[in-house]
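Go through this one:
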Amino acid sequence: EYGLQTADEFARTLASCGITIVSGLAEGIDSAAHEGAIAAGGRTAAVMPTGHDRVYPVRNIPLYERILDTGGVVVSEYYPGCEPERTSFVVRNRIVSGLCYGVLITEAGERSGALATARHASEQDRDLFALPGQITSPASLGTNKLIKSLAAQLVTDPLDILSEYIALYPEKLYTTARP
């Protein structure tokens, strides 16, 4: 619940300030991030681990359609008809991080696919941010380890991320909602 809530909140706030939210269209935190961006009237991009005509999971077909209907984009490196394979999820994470200036890890266990995204972000020289989690929660072991090792910058508010970029892109980012 923590990961879902914070992904939605951060995506909603950042999207309302002009940041495009990029995620993987997976169930859970990815979906929450896309939903938050759409709810804020912002932009979102989904990177699929399948062909563009094979939405996975199937329950995300309505979200896929909302992304496109609201001016978002869906990206896939796979040919039409390609079904998801076990490795395609981790492989697509390099595209997620590659499309971004900064990557936020909201929640990650010790063996989470989000840690692969964090690794790709580091290799691609992207900024890496992480939300701290409860030290007793298995779902926070990965994020807390990223912060502890100084691989990721600790953030507790969406404005922590916005403040990293607003001076670089004042014509594209803003702290008050624009029509």
Observations:
- The chain has seven helices and six strands.
